[in-house]
Amino acid sequence: MATNFKSIPIIDISPLLAKWDDPNMAGDQGVGEVVQQLDQACREAGFFYVKGHGIPDSIIKEVRNLTHKFFSLPYEEKLKIKISPAAGYRGYQRIGENITKGTPDMHEAIDCYREVEPGMFGDLSKPLEGPNQWPINPPNLKQLMEEYTSICTDLSRKIMRGIALALGAAADAFEGKRAGDPFWVLRIIGYPKVTHANGHDMPKNDIGW
Predict the structure, then answer these.
(1) Where are the extended beta strands (E) located within 45-182?
(2) Contacts of 174 (CB under 8 A, 6+ apart)
(3) What is the β-pairing status of strands 49-51 and 10-12?
(4) Disulfide: which of 30, 98, 144, 207 matches 15 by Cβ 3.0-4.6 Å?
(5) What keywords are assigned to this protein (predicted)?
(6) Is the pLDDT of residue 131 over 50?
């Protein structure tokens, strides 16, 4: 059960990644410490940051660079991949279009999901069927983000092995038919260069704005 907390936990998962495919990983001291931290974070905060994740800095910097380039484009260009029901609710969302507690959020975004083939999950998946929308400019954003998503999906599987151990299950409990084929969500967010909104100072996050 989540409780009040003052900061989001930051967990160094490098010991877990070093042993993720070791049949005896559950008995490793370093893995055990990570598992304990994952357990505590999930119970008390409900989410966490990770470090020691192994994602190359070069890819992270390029993701930031290309997404900044996209959000710097004119609105007319960005609206070429406008989000819509026909597009499976994927694509570009303008500043203020997303609503939180009845108030427009001060950000813009590209919403991406795992691509769903027609009938893949029956009638339940129909609203989300279709491919992701990617802009023509920057020209290599699609390739980069698909690579980044693949890396993050693989990383999440390894983290889930630690969470499985935290629940007292086998490390591979969330693999195979049960949860080995995840549905992922990616939201690329851009914040405008403003310091005030509605006559008030902008908060550190966009919730409610």
Answers:
(1) 49-51, 91-93, 99-100, 103-104, 108-113
(2) 157, 160, 161, 163, 164, 180
(3) parallel
(4) 30
(5) Iron, Metal-binding, Oxidoreductase
(6) yes
E strand intervals along 27-100? 49-51, 91-93, 99-100
Which residue's structure tokens are 């959000």?
71
* Residue 119, C-beta contacts closer than 8 angstroms, at least 6 positions apart: 125
Cα–Cα distance, 208 to 147 (Å, whole number)? 32
Of the listed ranges 13-17, 43-47, 180-184, the least confidently predicted one is 180-184
| pTM (two decimals) | 0.85
Span between the terminal Cα atoms of the chain, in Å: 29
Contact, 105 vs 96, CB < 8 A? yes
Average pLDDT over residues 167-190: 89
Tell me the C-alpha distance between 160 and 168, whole Å.
12
Question: 124, 122, 97, 125: which is closest to 111 by C-alpha?
Answer: 97
